[in-house]
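#lab-general

N.A. 3:47 PM
ok so I finally got the sequence cleaned up, no stray characters, all 166 residues accounted for. can someone with queue access submit it? mine expired

B.Y. 3:52 PM
send it over

N.A. 3:53 PM
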Amino acid sequence: MKSVLKTDRISLAALAFAALAAGAGLPATSATAGECPADQITEDGMKPGPMMPKGVTDSVIKSIDLSSKGEAWKGSMLRMRKLVVQPGGVVPWHSHEMRPANILIISGSITEYSSTCKVPILHMKGEVTAEFGHLSHWWKNNGKAPAVLYSSDILSPEMHNDDAAM
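B.Y. 4:20 PM
back already:
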């Protein structure tokens, strides 16, 4: 039951994100995000990076309390945010162990430094990346233009007041 619930939560986030992509005028099958090269995948990739945000604005667009979906969802929230990361800006090191998310890159580009990859991963405009499971990472805008990202994630009750949950 627990693994089915976890899959249902991830599916709900993916469905919400597909709706966002459609509303943004992007095809539901938008480009696959930059991925870690197969020969660079590891369980001990990039080490923790910056712990504080820099040059990033994070605006919650809408949140939905999922409690009405049953006891297993009590206190969980489906949240959609817009992040604008200025050139040189950083989204600090964070984990997705308890918070699945999908990220859509609307404009610009951004580089991910992941615990599951030995090399940085470049994400470009129009790409979507899924973040879940045993993953910790940080992001940096190494470009010359702001990177605009839309994030859809599920917050467990413990994370509602976690300002570090980027």
